[in-house]
Amino acid sequence: MNDIAKKLLKEVSGLDEMPKGAYNIRENSKSVARQSSENIEIVSKEDKSGIDIIVKPDTKSENVFIPALVSCSGVHDLVYNDFFIGENADITIIAGCGVSTGDSCDGSEHNGIHRFFLGKNSKVRYVEKHIGEGTGTGKRVIDPVTEVIQEEGSYMEMETTQIKGVDSTRRFTTAKLKDGAKLVIKEKLMTHGEQFAESKFEVDMDGEDSSVNLISRSVARDYSRQTFISKINGNTRCMGHSECDAIIMDHGVVSAIPEITANSLDATLIHEAAIGKIAGDQMIKLMTLGLTEGEAEAKIIDGFLN
Amino acid sequence: MLKLENISFEVENEKEILKDVNLTIEKGKFIAITGPNGGGKSTLARIISGVLKPTKGKITFYGEDITNLSITERAQRGISFGFQQPVRFKGITVHDLINIAKGEELSVMDASHYLSEVGLCAKDYIHRELNDGLSGGEIKRIEIATVIARNTKLSIFDEPEAGIDLWSFNHLIDIFLKMHQSQENSIVIISHQERILDVADEIIAMVDGAIVKRGVKESVLPELLHCEDPKNCLNCHDILEA
Ligand SMILES: Nc1ncnc2c1ncn2[C@@H]1O[C@H](COP(=O)(O)OP(=O)(O)O)[C@@H](O)[C@H]1O
Ligand SMILES: [Mg+2]
């Protein structure tokens, strides 16, 4: 692994060295390091590029690291990762993707297609960070597709973060929830320059007492554009909530497009969206505490995306 | 220490919100500003802290003309201002805000001290976000705590009593008095609270954008206290104008 890859690895997953337990590190479209653990098995797919991550039932408090790195330009990576989470397992998955194009004018692309199959009463925390680096004009593109199937009583929490650096991203997440399944998605996004980001969610609550909570916080600076589309279908007694909170700066543009459908009298669905520039009184307050305008702005943004 | 000369504040429709205000506040004083709603008290506080620029007049602070200084520059020179309506922030915690006010990274214990001062149980609040989850009274106390933490030459509190229960408020008065013990720092409290007017060195009454009376409590208090609504009360108006 070269220095660029090592640096990306650190930023994406916080790792300085190979972790304990199960991991798979992908660099420029190939698995470069892999380890399974007693409870978590990682195997290559036979028909296409990617891996299956199989977690035994009742596995408790284990981590799996699956960072994907693109450390040079001109790469068009496409990967299929499937997660099979056994009943009652409770694990954390640290994923993420770093794309570095150096000073090249060739772009690079990483498209990850992730599918999660959560067994009954299993619990997954999925943490994903997107990083883009490079000084050239080469475009860095990350288009993740995520599909989540949750059995009865399972819980999934997805935390996704993308702060600057990625020129274009189209994220598409779908989920199907059975009885008592719970899905929480927290998305943090900052775009700048001429970047474009789209995040689209489609959640079907099919099981009684299932719930989804979708929280998006984002900042659009310069000439960047963002679109959020949240489609939530309540097909039975269930609770759905989505919240899109965006700060626009400079010439940033944000659209929030909710589509909530109650197909049952017992479905409770809420969508909240707030888009606007930093509130003037917030700036004033921090300046009366001695911060300059720039410092106040940075504090507000940091807190907002924290 | 602070001197306002011929300060006026006029808004577009030619409404004069402050009318030729002259005011000097000496070092180490505890001043209460009172008067009916809409009298211009909050506007005066905003003008002093730099949130608003006067349309006419001059402000000096320790001999320096600060009329054209920014909010930040005034804050750095030692002016603090606790808002009547505190501001909320998503994602910024109580601890963060106290650090910002203090200008250094305080330990949880040191930051908690300022919360205890305003009657909040520190461990319940120190990590809370300053968002809509806090009640009016809670956010108000935190606002006061940030001004206390700054401990500057001039501290202005705009109606600190709002939303705070009586027991805590009595404790708060002790805190103001403690701040006042330093002969260096001055405190200006905009308030309708009798207890505050009681302990102030001097009271300033503002009606319709002008200072109508200034003096020790013995002279101002009796007149003001016997009326709920001095602005619309002819009797009060006469007394105040006199
Ligand atoms: N920016 C403004 N534009 C127009 N009117 C204002 C503005 N700021 C304050 N006012 C008006 O000025 C008057 C004084 O307000 P304020 O200073 O808040 O009074 P107080 O704090 O004494 O209750 C009120 O009538 C208020 O509505
Ligand atoms: Mg007021």
From TrEMBL, chain A:
Belongs to the iron-sulfur cluster assembly SufBD family. Signal peptide: none annotated. It comes from Acetobacterium malicum. This is ABC transporter permease. SUPFAM superfamilies: Stabilizer of iron transporter SufD (SSF101960). Transmembrane segments: none annotated. It holds the Pfam family SUFBD_core. Residues 85-304 form the SUF system FeS cluster assembly SufBD core domain.
